[in-house]
Predict the structure.
Amino acid sequence: MPESIQFDSFRGDFASLAAVMKRSWSESRSQSLLYDEPFLRSAFQYPGSSFELAPTLYIDGSPAAFVAGFPRNVFLDGRPLRLLCITFWTTAAEFKGKGYGARIWMEILRRAREFGYDGAVNFCVDGELSNGIVISCGARAGAQVSLVSRVKYLARLIRPAEARQSPPNLDSVDIFLRAASRISAPLNLLRIWSREEAEWQCVRRWGALSSAHAETARCGIATGYLTEFSGDAAARALIVDDLLWSDLESEERVQVMGNLLAQGSAQGAQIAVVPLLGYAETDALRTVGFRQSRRLMNLYLTVWGGVPLPQDLTSIYLDVY
C-alpha cells in the first residue's frame, strides 16, 4: 500500500457504512453483531462524538476501511484518565489483505493522541487476527499496549411468552447516576458518567432499554440495547450493558432483570447476553436462567505519555463496545 495514502474523516454516509460492515463481518469465523444505519447514526449522537475521530479510507466514494472512537472518562487504579473507546473497525470485503486495517488503526491512535486523549481501549474477539494488529500497531505508534482482561459472557434464550408491558422508568437517568456512584466493589477500571452521557445510555441511543427499582434510600438499574447477531443462526439480541444494582436485595435484582428480559421479548429479542467484568453481583442472572457462553472478548489498553500500564485488570466497569 502506498505511503501517500490519505484518510478522510467520516462523511456521515451511514447507509453505505452499514452495508460495508455487514458484508465484511459476515466473513468472520465468530458470530458478529450487525449494526444497521439507525444504530450507527445513534452512536455518533453520543456526547463528545466527532467524525474527526472516525478516520475513513474512501475508494471510489465508498468506505474501504473504517474505525471510530468515542470518549470515555475513567479512573484507572484511582488515576483519572480520558480514553478513546475504539470500535466498528472494518475493512471492506474486497479490500482485505491490503494492509488497510493496520494503517487505519495507526491513524486513529494518531488522532486520539492529537486530540489530547491519555490512551485508548478496545475489544477484540478472542482468536481473531485483529488481536495481533492491535499490539503491533501500538508498538509502531510508540504506545504501550497490553491485553489487560479476558471478558467472558453469560447468555440466555428469551421466549416470546415472556413479553409483557412494563411501566416506564421516568426517573431512569437519575436512578442510573445514583446507582453508578454506589458501585461497591473496588475496581481497577471505573467508568465515570456525565448526565448527558447517562441520558444517551438510558434513553436516547437506538434500541435502548432499561429496568430500574428504587426504594427510599436504595436504587438499582440494568440497561441494554437491541441489535442482531449475524450468520446462519441470526437472532435479535439484547446486549446488557450495565448492572448497577449493588444497593438492591437479591429478589429485587431478579425482578429488575426479569423486567428487562420482558421488554426485550416484547421487541422481538431472542437471546440476551451479558459480559462478566467483575463489578456486579451475578447470582440473579443465573437465577433467571443465564448460563456460561463460549463467547470470549479480549480487552486491550493502549497508553502513552507516561501513563502506567497495569498488567491485569481483575475488576472493570466499562461498556464492551
